[in-house]
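#struct-pred

JT: dropping the chains for the assembly here, can someone run the whole complex?
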Amino acid sequence: MVTVRAPATSANLGSGFDVFGVALDRPADVVHVERADRTTIEVTGVGSQYIPTDPGRNVVGAVAEALDAPAHIRIDKGVRPSSGLGSSAASSAGAALALNELYDRGLSREELVPIAAEGEAVVSGEAHADNVAPALLGGFTVATPERVTTIDADIPLVACLPEIAVSTRDARRVVPETASMEELVHTVGRAATLSVGMCRRDPKLVGAGMDERIVTPARAKLITGYDDVRSAALAAGADGVTVSGAGPAVLAVCGAHARTRVAAAMIEAFDDAGVAARAYKTRVGSGAEVFDF
Ligand SMILES: Nc1ncnc2c1ncn2[C@@H]1O[C@H](COP(=O)(O)OP(=O)(O)O)[C@@H](O)[C@H]1O
Ligand SMILES: N[C@@H](CCOP(=O)(O)O)C(=O)O
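RK: done, full complex below.
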């Protein structure tokens, strides 16, 4: 048997739609795999009642097929599904790493990224790699069709998860199909600022680089209370706030000392909007870990 802990991730970071991602040091899924003649799946943990066990509909089924590695796969969910915190990606990345080990396939983590992305295609319709890349490699990742690059950025974060569900598939439907040259120039500037901020481990630059005006405003409408939560986090000392992945989680970057204040302000603002929420005080963390085989 092989067991892997695979972390939650936050994709896009505002200006890096479908490209940027970070691994979060918590929460995480735990994936156990055992050799079998055909793939079977068992799911326990947070939101497991909403996750199919049919290998044709669970992301890990697609990963097992892509690796030609049938197994009994047991997933203990720590990352709630439809959260914007890479729940499906945590399972996909965890299964890819565990099955690679179980069947001695010898693939590198970089080579596992497109395989784990096959799982994402099952649920969102597209094999976007911006969650599975940080879930496998850790740190801040830039995932393009040609390559994935990663840097080990140490940045404090707050991820605030309201008790509403937004499916990635639905949130992809509201993304505008066109953008003006002015909006593109704005996005490139912010994305570059964010990347420099990650390299310098500077939360202020990262926060400034999160500002984005094409995708985020369209998605924010799917999150009850988003504008007030964002304002409350900024007033409490956050350096930048954006939608985490496709939402509904909201991601704030701030200095380590400000995390408790920012988390409380975000929870309170969701509460004022009539939505219960919880907050993870977290930071950019490591990729999936094999911890028992
Ligand atoms: N192993 C899995 N873990 C989480 N969600 C899964 C898994 N397999 C299939 N799903 C389905 O994927 C959807 C959640 O994925 P997604 O909408 O991308 O949310 P998230 O942003 O949390 O990854 C749900 O419909 C869920 O039932
Ligand atoms: N780039 C994707 C990321 C989806 O992330 P998730 O955590 O919501 O699955 C998108 O924005 O659609």
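JT: nice. The chain has two domains: 2-151, 156-283. The pocket of LJ64HWYM (ligand 2) is lined by residues 11-12, 18, 84-86, 128, 130-131, 168, 171-172, 245-246 (CB under 6 Å).
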